[in-house]
Prior knowledge:
Elements: E1 4-10, E2 16-22, H1 27-33, E3 51-56, E4 59-61, H2 71-75, E5 78-80, E6 84-86, E7 90-94, E8 110-120, E9 123-130, E10 147-151, E11 158-162, E12 172-178, H3 184-191, E13 198-205, E14 218-223, H4 227-240, E15 246-252, H5 261-270, E16 274-280, E17 290-291, H6 294-307, E18 313-318, H7 320-333, E19 340-344
Parallel strand pairs: 1-7, 14-15, 14-18, 15-16, 16-17, 18-19
Antiparallel strand pairs: 1-2, 3-5, 3-7, 4-6, 8-9, 8-13, 9-12, 10-11, 10-13
Helix pairs in contact: 4-5, 6-7
This protein binds FE2/S2 (inorganic) cluster.
FE2/S2 (inorganic) cluster (FES) binds next to loops.
Amino acid sequence: xxxxxxxxxxxxxxxxxxxxxxxxxxxxxxxxxxxxxxxxxxxxxxxxxxxxxxxxxxxxxxxxxxxxxxxxxxxxxxxxxxxxxxxxxxxxxxxxxxxxxxxxxxxxxxxxxxxxxxxxxxxxxxxxxxxxxxxxxxxxxxxxxxxxxxxxxxxxxxxxxxxxxxxxxxxxxxxxxxxxxxxxxxxxxxxxxxxxxxxxxxxxxxxxxxxxxxxxxxxxxxxxxxxxxxxxxxxxxxxxxxxxxxxxxxxxxxxxxxxxxxxxxxxxxxxxxxxxxxxxxxxxxxxxxxxxxxxxxxxxxxxxxxxxxxxxxxxxxxxxxxxxxxxxxxxxxxxxxxxxxxxxxxxx
Length: 348
Ligand code: FES
């Protein structure tokens, strides 16, 4: 049967929103028809941005990359809404608050390049300024943890990058971008990008946000440039002088990959209760810090936290392998899934 089914979304703040979806449609497209903008980037089952959790109902899920949705997650009802077709009425949990999914179309501001700097470790810092639209409005609001899609100038190729600065009135957006060999955006950054260039953008998007309810300690587990959205969160925590006991685990493969160390030192001095640890997976004999992955260090501390009755909110950002390993560690030690907030790296 090809009739339409009722989809009830339960948001992170426990609100509900409904729309209809035909059996031949996916949830993201059907939501868009009802003017509901859900987080989605690739629309092809590769990025994981449209992750949800089916509470009840039957559905068929098309093929997708294991990095975007692991088998374990799928076994627990995890779905990618861009690949999911209902076979009956469904109830789906999403990790966004209602205010993040009903705000109509995502803005597509034009931005100007203010700076391109080498941060070390093959990472470039790209600083943009949002320009006013034709009615003179500057669409520059975002929340720490969100990302923007940036278009390679002169093409229609877009890449998604997390914003690393704190929300500000001057319309500035900072990104930390690891150069990828032969990457389209990387090639532009290396060969073409200069101050004054303009580029089309889309966003902000995404629901990887600080969980503001309560005073639970916060743990941030980052791999490589997965630290960018966490810097945005921590910079806002510095501005608001938030006193949550917090620890950042920042993982890199070698010492040659080090970047953003000065920024992290500044945050340690300005966020009231922040400590941080750089974890090097394959260090030289000179390395004095933690040897291993950030998940190893996180697991060591989580065990001690849970033994003391402390249940931290855990923020994970990096490649799928890091997220899966951290989720498995939390599961093994008994931290509930609801304490985990994650953002997987997008391909490309
Ligand atoms: S939008 Fe669904 S996986 Fe990318």
